[in-house]
Write a structure and sequence with these properties.
about 120 residues, mainly alpha, two-stranded antiparallel sheet, 7 helices
Length: about 120
């Protein structure tokens, strides 16, 4: 169930739409997601969407409005407020911070060459 929810999380669907799509009642979906993820379907979907947004911000030059649309939010201003509240930084700042870090934990800065004195 969680794999299917994750796969479809960025589609512009309500939680009720997700339940119907998987042949479940809203209560059944809530129970399944709480058991599998430990949170409500809405929080699960939001977490997946925000995670995908962080990936897009780090890996692309898409405008924030385009990122918002790709993760299922039609209103970029609402998306930015929500992202800032949940992630703790604005999407633009998140992108700037991500661009300074190379995946794997290495710094993107090249260290200065040290001169060896005899």
């Amino acid at each position: 169930m969680l794999k299917a929810l994750s796969r479809d999380a960025c589609l512009p669907l309500t939680v009720a739409d997700h339940a119907a799509r998987h042949g479940m009642t809203l209560a059944e979906l809530r129970t399944a997601v709480r058991r599998g993820a430990g949170c409500s379907p809405k929080d699960c979907l939001l977490g997946i969407r925000l995670g995908r947004a962080k990936e897009l911000l780090a890996a692309t030059e898409l405008p924030v409005a385009a990122v918002a649309r790709r993760v299922g939010h039609d209103d970029p201003a609402y998306f930015s407020r929500l992202f800032t509240r949940r992630v703790g930084t604005a999407p633009v700042r998140c992108r700037a911070q991500q661009s300074r870090v190379v995946p794997g934990g290495w710094s993107s800065q090249v260290p200065e060459t040290q001169t060896i004195h005899p």
